[in-house]
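If you are new to this repository, start here. Below is one unmodified record pulled from the training split, so you can see the exact layout before writing a loader.
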Amino acid sequence: MSWKRGAYPEFTLEDVIATIFLLREPIGRKAIAETLDIGEGSVRTLLKKLNWIDVIDSAQRGHFLSKTGKKLLERLKGLFSEAHFVGKVDGMPAYAIVVKNPPQFKSIELRDEAIRFFAKGAMILIVKNGEPVFPEDERPLRDTMEELAMNIEEVLNFSDGDLIVVTWAENPSDAMKSAYHVALTLKNDEIPEELKSLVR
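And here is the target side for that same chain:
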């Protein structure tokens, strides 16, 4: 495919993943660009590549997932959830994501990954007895941040053993994409190759 010979794309795998979740409903290029805080030209290239691998269809009301795209989304949802806005932490927008069947991890390394990807801070939680707790001492999140715990329970579906990543940043797109980044770090080996190929 010809794009591989061109310049390095101006979007990341995190942008690709976020876009696939956004495309469940028809959405226009401008709305994607605003949500991800990337240029419309980059979004155009991204959508073109998704079209090349038969992941999206387009109509007057916007772009949306094709049959192949919907299957791909289901595969991704088996690995991790969509990143959801869960309020503010330290006065900044925060997003949370559920990672299913997480491999062995070190919380500090995952927090560092989030910060490397433009988050100002991150919190790694595990689900025990139906609620998010800190893995270090199994202290429930609601003991220290009740509102955040309630917001997480409202927007995310999780089960015992799942990992929950909460990231916050000065702007929503950085918070959202840093949450996806941690999920991708944990599930890198299981991400479909055709998606990884879009950013090489």
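Two things worth knowing about this chain: Strands lie at 56-59, 62-65, 84-89, 92-99, 121-128, 131-133, 163-168. The two ends are 12 Å apart (CA to CA).
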